[in-house]
Amino acid sequence: MTAVRRYLSHGFVQAFLVLVGLIWLTPLAGLFVSSLRSSEDTARGGWWTTLTSPGQLSADNYTALLHNAGMTKAFWNTVLISVPTTLLVVVIAALAGYAFAWLSFPGRDTVFLMVVALLVVPVQIGLLPVAKLFGQLGLFGSIPGVILFHVAYGLPFAVFLLRNYFAEMPKEMLEAARMDGGGEWRIFVQLVLPLGRPAIASLAIFQFLWVWNDMLVALLFADSDSQPLTVALQSQIRQFGSNIDVLAPGAFLSLIVPLVVFFVFQRHFVQGVMAGSVK
After folding, report:
1. Nearest alpha-carbon partner for 243 in 7, 73, 70, 17
2. Does pLDDT of 279 surpass 50?
3. Residue 72 to residues 9, 31, 68, Cα–Cα distance (Å)
4. Which fold has domain 73-274?
5. What sign results for the dihedral spanned by CA atoms 163, 169, 172, 178?
6. What predicted TM-score, i.e. pTM, was given to this entire model?
7. Where in the chain are the domains?
8. Which residues, at least 6 apart from 141, have a Cβ–Cβ distance to it below 8 Å?
9. What is the pLDDT of residues 58-80, one digit of tens each?
10. Half-sphere exposure of 36 (CA within 13 A, CB side)
């Protein structure tokens, strides 16, 4: 790791990384500028024309977007789907990961292998059977149905990730806590969860991004009243030529929220990714 840090500290390498970052941010900047232009200005030229004509920029598109009942409802539907799904996956996976790592019960290894085996099951295989099941249960086309589907398909990876992270914790530490009279629940809450914060934060970021950006599951399981922002934007693309003033700010809003979440938890995310790489 020392050699890698020394290599990355070179001025040429840092300049190259800055250049790559600027190139990566160019489409985002273009989308943001386009979201501040009227449809007439967009039809006349590309977003870079604002460099010479800054008067094109205006917040009118965002004002109109806030008054667009369909888009605002889709945004809040996305929040109502992404946040509960992320919380449920993290909580259930943390409990299951601790049980698989440190509790002894009949069939533990067999059940864990079954969970790992579910990682190779493509999401497309379960779409039609689950859709039929949700139709029988009255969940098809509802937000709870979309949440349940995401939770079910997010848990195998989440359990696998947290179980492996928890299993790396020192056994002597947990045994000392038990000898001091700590119960399993107390050890889990006061010891395992704080130490596992980097992995939990990384999992939460991944899960939130997956659900927030999902369109396949939402297209099938959500109706017009429960559709998230991705589906609402997809329906707007069909009329791209006449509603760029709605599509551009909506797409930027859909993009900026995951970026904000990532940068807020960036420190924990990096710790989780690097966990176990350095002894």
Report:
1. 70
2. no
3. 45, 19, 6
4. MetI-like fold (1.10.3720)
5. negative
6. 0.82
7. 1-58, 73-274
8. 221, 222, 223, 225, 226
9. 888 888 888 888 888 999 999 99
10. 17
- What band does 4 get if pLDDT is binned at 50, 70 and 90? low
Per the structure block, which two tokens stand in for 175?
């045994």
Which one-letter amino acid corresponds to residue 200?
Answer: I
| Distance (Å, whole) CA 223 – CA 220 | 8
Residue 155: name the closest of 89, 95, 91 by CA: 89
